[in-house]
Amino acid sequence: MPVWASPTTTDWTLDVNLNLGVHLGQQNLSMDQMRTAWRRFDAAGMDWISVWDHIYEAPPAGGTIDHFEAVSTLGALCADTSHARIGCLVFCVGYRNPALLAKMAATLDHISNGRFELGIGAGWHEQEATAYGYDFPPVGKRLDMLEEAAPLIRSLLDQERTTFDGEWFRTDNASNLPRPVQARLPVWIGGTGEKRTLPLAARYADGWNAAYVSAAEFGRLNGVLDEACEREGHDPLTIKRGINLQFILGADQAEADQQRQASIEQWGPQADRILDGALLGTPDTAAEQVAAYHAAGATDLNIALRAPWSVEALDAYFDDVVPVVRQQSN
After folding, report:
1. Mean pLDDT, to the nearest integer, of 62-90?
2. CA 9 → CA 5, 6, 132, 245, distances in Å?
3. What are the CA-CA distances from residue 132 to residues 26, 149, 292, 314 (Å)?
4. Domain ranges of the chain
5. Does residue 180 contact residue 157 with C-beta atoms inside 8 Å?
6. CA 138 → CA 126, 147, 166, distances in Å?
7. What's the chain's Rg over C-alpha atoms?
8. Rounded mean pLDDT of 239-254?
9. Is the pLDDT of residue 12 over 90?
10. Quick check: 9 pLDDT over 70?
């Protein structure tokens, strides 16, 4: 397959093959269990492993489920693996000063020997923000913060010194040493908002990530991003396109039905939206579901795991589905 070369100053190119990964929620699991899981994912040849940036569980349950913090968890993930690209899709820019987040990203890039990618977004989990004393302004203001954070982070990752004076964030002749291992550490912007988020991705991002939308909706949003790139003068072929899908497969139809019902009970009023962007049914239909997203423009597809999941169905996904998908996408 051809490789599309970036006309920008990046040192990586956008491959048309489909990268496969795992988005592991660090909840309802011990640290030893998580470390065992992501070592297995890495040994299985997954292209990507990520965690999420939450303080409480997702979906919200009032802080009643064991849940680990993202950056410290990522340190262990980076150290425990050697193959997969590592990330967090996405860090909420309201939880950490973006300059500090750039420092964290550079540090994680060194721990992983140049495999870290930084995802940022506006955040959505008001329950955890309120509990921990964070301001949680309306979404328009949070997107204003994201718009300030993206170029500030990019500058701190790339430039020797950064001075920035914004409404939300500022730096004064700040350095970020040591620099990342990668000549250009990729920055992702996550979300599905057409008026603000996708134009921001077109302007600043190396990758765009959406979560829990159907293949048809992903394809439509992909087109919206292409149009935004054209307006920004940014070659759309230089932006990776990622999708996270809830893993709700069962080893057989009876277990698949049980997994689906458990997800409905877990997500409540949001269940229909989540199920639109999920791997549903049994593993023998999963490759076809994945292929639909690749056809809609996805370059990266991650299964989102929330414990407990069907161990047998996950084994079948790695052993049977992934080889078929790789063969079809090459």
Report:
1. 97
2. 11, 8, 40, 31
3. 18, 21, 40, 34
4. 18-329
5. yes
6. 10, 14, 18
7. 19
8. 97
9. no
10. no
Contact in structure between 51 and 24 (CB atoms under 8 Å):
yes
| Amino acid 16: pLDDT | 65
Strand residues in the chain grouped as ranges (E): 3-4, 14-15, 19-24, 48-51, 85-92, 116-121, 162-165, 170-174, 187-190, 207-211, 240-249, 278-281, 300-305
Tell me which architecture the domain covering 18-329 has in CATH. Answer: Alpha-Beta Barrel (3.20)
Give the residue carrying structure tokens 């693996």.
81
Alpha carbons within 13 A on the beta-carbon side of 302: 29
d(CA 159, CA 10): 14
Q: How far apart are the C-alpha atoms of 28 and 34, rounded to whole Å?
A: 10
pLDDT of 4 higher than 50: no
278 beta partners: 246
Cα distances (angstroms) measured from residue 2 to each of 17, 328, 330: 9, 15, 10
User: Beta partners for 280?
Assistant: 248
Residue 188 identity (one-letter amino acid): W
Look up the pTM and report it.
0.92
In 112-252, where does DSSP find H-type helix? 126-131, 139-158, 197-204, 215-232
Angle (CA) 99-102-107 rounded to 5° is 130
DSSP state of 116: E
**Two structure tokens written together for 68:** 């680990």
Q: Indicate the SS3 state at residue 303.
A: strand
- Give, in order, the Cα–Cα distances in Å from 296 to each of 40, 166, 221: 29, 37, 10
